[in-house]
Amino acid sequence: MQIGFNLPNSGPLSAIADMTKIAIEGEAMGFDYLTMTDHVVLPDTKVPGYPYSESGEFYESAPTERHEQLIGMAYVAAKTTHIRLVAAVLVVPHRPAVLAAKMLATLDVLSGGRLVVGVGAGWLKTEFDAVVTTPFADRGAVTDEYIDAFRVLWTEPAPRFVGRFTKFDGIVLEPKPIQRPYPPIWIGGESGPSVRRAARVGDAWYPIGSNNQHLLDTLPRLKAGIARLRKATAEAGRDPAAMGVAFRVKRYGAAVPPVASDGERRLFSGSEADLIGDFRALRDAGVTALDIDFGRPTASAVIAEMRRFKAAVIEKI
């Protein structure tokens, strides 16, 4: 199981010195990957609507202060040497397909082949209305089509594509990504369409357990989700055993209420022994990567908690 951490690209910790320090220290500690999130603009975040917290509010303070994801990842790539860089997740409809494919290919080349393309369809209509040219209601179809276009652009010497939302012919996209056939694609989202998208084109499914509409916050719920993924992968004509599962942990320990709505213990609640048991249980259930948001108010506190958590939990898995 690969272990990663969220690198804040919003709020106070997105200050260049802090963001750089956390990335460099995390790499030195031996974390396998870091993640960065994707919003272009946000509405008034005091209005509940965030799907991954119980209150509907963002976890971090000042979330509207935010670096653009791909430019931020390119900056971090230049400051590190070997840690993998995960888009967590790229909101696919935000950027035209050809432009996004070019930016991602460039990022893979400039990072020496360290990119993982986490993707999602998005959820925030206010942001879509300001940024995206395709309809919000079509975001799932746009995401599916753009991913197909990415794969054509990344692999074919004379790419050609005709779709409902994008089309191209007579062009060249070079250089191709270093990774062959292209960087790993992790499909974010917890809904049925997200699972089917992962089964069709993903290298891994990449859910967050705390989505209030599609909870995966207990071991039985997560196992049931993975079973749905395996079934959908087989139905898509692919090998279910080859499908990875990456899992995002937004909060842990005392910050997580101990009992979920299904009466089961919530994953990553409780003591360090409980957390060690959760890591082992998820690994045994087929989770191949897991990343953690360490959520402290200062860079020094984040780094100290990463170091403590690594010694107390990760090294005992």
Descriptive terms for the model:
single chain, 317 residues, alpha/beta, TIM Barrel, eight-stranded parallel beta barrel, two-stranded antiparallel ribbon, 9 helices, 10 strands, 37% helix, 14% strand
Describe the structure concisely.
By secondary structure, the chain is of the alpha/beta class.
Helices and strands, in order, run as EHEHEHEHHEEEHEHEHEH
* Highest-level CATH class: Alpha Beta
Number of strands: 10
Averaged pLDDT, please? 95
In helices, the fraction of residues equals: 25-40%
Which structural class best describes the helix and strand composition? Answer: alpha/beta
Form type: globular
Strand count, sense and closure of the main sheet? 8 strands, parallel, barrel
CATH superfamily membership: Luciferase-like domain
State which percent range the strand residues make up. Answer: 5-15%
Distance between the termini: 10 Å
- Any guess at the CATH architecture? Alpha-Beta Barrel
Overall number of domains? 1
Count of helical regions:
9
Order the strands across the largest sheet as they lie in space.
1-2-3-4-7-8-9-10
- Oligomerization state: single chain
Whole-angstrom Rg: 19 Å
CATH topology: TIM Barrel
Notes on the protein architecture:
By secondary structure, the chain is an alpha/beta fold. The protein contains nine helices and ten strands. An eight-stranded parallel β-barrel has the order 1-2-3-4-7-8-9-10, surrounded by four helices. A two-stranded antiparallel sheet has the order 5-6. Strand 3, helix 3 (97-110) and strand 4 (115-120) form a beta-alpha-beta unit. The model has no long low-confidence stretch (mean pLDDT 95).
